[in-house]
Amino acid sequence: MSTSTPAVSVRALRAGRRRLAANRVVAYGCAAIVALAVLLAVFGPMLAPHDPNASNLSNAFVGPVAGHPLGYDGQGRDLLSRLLTGARTAMLGPFIVVVVSVAVGAALAVIAAWRGGWVDSVVSTVLDILFAFPAILLAILAAAVFGAGLTAPTLALAVAYTPYVARVLRGAALRERARDYIAACEVQGLPAVAIWWRHLVRNLLPLIVAQATLTFGYAMVDFAAISYLGLGVQPPTADWGVMVATGQAGVLQGYPAESLSAGLCVVVVVVAVNLLGERLAERDGEGR
Amino acid sequence: MSDWATPPADPLLAIEGLSVQLPVEGEVRTVLHDVTLSVGAGEAVGLVGESGSGKSMTARAVARLLPRGARCDGAIRFDGRDVAALKGADLRAYRGEVAMVFQDPRAHVNPVRTIGDFMIEALRSVRGVEPAAARRRAITALADLGIGDGERRMAQYPHELSGGLLQRVMIAGMLLTEPRLVLADEPTTALDVTTQADVMAILDELRRERGLALLFITHDLELAGAVCDRTAVMYAGQIVETRASALLQDDPLHPYTASLAAARPAVDVTVPRLAAIPGRPVSAFEAPAGCAFAPRCAHAIDACRAERPALEELDGGRVRCVRARELRGRLVEAPEVSHHG
């Protein structure tokens, strides 16, 4: 049990993950899972066969029966309906976080790379300071200020993830900014905004998409954790993170279905999204 | 051509005493020293020199493309406006009037956008032309450069075109916005020899047709002589001689120009050994205190090493050499003189 053992295994894990992401079949599978997850987020609540909040305590922890393929949770609510309804809540938060952090991060990256000098220094320093705050800590802080719910963690995670996105994109934007075709655009008298949109951002797009997918995965785990801590979406609202938390009681009594199924949903979506993001990032690297 | 033997009185582009310093690895290095050059409306001026002599840096200074942190002294005036002071919309308008042709066309076009996107972009956003009209003009411009199937080319990507064709596309795109001055930075160096001649001929013809001013940067003294009215010779970040191109090779004013001309191989003369200039070219920052060329010059005397000579008028040209007057007419035989001495 030397301290170096975990480091080696982490490296081996990373290499394995990269090999997995490079596999074509895995990539298509991941894309299919992500597509399914998106469909669930949009239509899930409509597909739910029963009212996700209708509880009948006499059905508590009852296993799969006709019409209820996954059985009931500890409060006698239909588990499948809760999973389907929870899909939207579980993915809406990460989606907003991705949109905000990628938009703000990309804008900061482009401005920093374009103007350079003190603008770049200020942006980079602010990002470095933000790096010091862990996402979960910011979320707890936000929950304390704004109260528990979807808003506080969304805001906190958007702030926490922006520096990650901005740092990666800034490096790429700097590299792109120094290329000759950008100088050629400048010398043609094109307005800076046109060069940003049509050339810089356009050519960074593969990387932006890759960053967005990776961020989505991380944000989803964080949301689940925040819900689990009770700072996010509040019960009885159906949400995968909340279900992991409320299912705990069942786990102790030998009925792990609720926690397990919700946890499995989170894991499957996160792994699929991350592998897909990894593949996109890898492909962008090959293109250079 | 002889009309342009002397610098125009009211030039379109006037560079006066331009010095540029760049921060390199923590120290400030001079890359251009006291460059004075003018280009009249419709005039073609050549800028000749070895690699690292500051030719491209001069063009970049004019196009306001100097690297970050560069310090500029002296003045660059375009049509009476101070180029260094331009900002925002004024700078963009100026850049619309000045076009640049680059050495490597492939590096200077966005690889993920089509030729059509590239051609139309400046027209649309700088000149505000409607998309359909911009397309028509782009296809006409391609036809002007001998690219007949413009419609098809517009849908292609840069990697689908050969270097020569791409350079012609770049020139067509550059001419679309109707600039008054063209900065051509070794536009044919990256192309093969036969394509070079084509591109050069087209550039020269279009320039004459449209009365464009041209600052033509090359390391080919003969090419500059063929295309340009006047030619400036650069060495170590300084202009050492400016003279009517017709006179530059046969009657040079500066020993460096004479050595360059002598070192050039000729098809019709057989020599046992090509003449070469001893030593190696220096950059502006490593140039000695006196005349930058003195260490390699066959005619250098103590006065040459004492202080940097100024650019002085002589015989309708300008020369930066203290012995220029004295060496008048003796320079063409220079290599032989150094041989026996």
Tell me briefly what this model is:
Helix content of chain A is 77%, strand content 0%.
Shape category of chain B? globular
Percentage of β-strand residues of chain A: under 5%
For this structure, the quaternary state is heterodimer
Tally of extended strands of chain A? 0
Question: Which regions of chain A have little confidence, pLDDT < 50, spanning 5+ residues?
Answer: none
The helix tally of chain B amounts to 13
Describe this entry's structure for a reader.
The complex is a heterodimer of chains A (288) and B (341). Chain A has 288 residues and is mainly α. The radius of gyration of chain A is 22 Å and the shape is elongated. The mean pLDDT of chain A is 86. Chain A contains eleven helices and no strands. In chain B, the strands form two sheets. An eight-stranded mixed sheet of chain B has the order 6-7-8-3-9-10-12-11, sandwiched between helices. In chain B, strands 2-1-4-5 form a four-stranded antiparallel sheet, covered by helices on one side. Chain B has 13 helices and twelve strands. In chain B, 45% of the residues are buried. Chain B has 341 residues and is of the alpha/beta class. Chain B is globular and about 65 Å long. Classes of the chains: A mainly alpha (288), B alpha/beta (341).
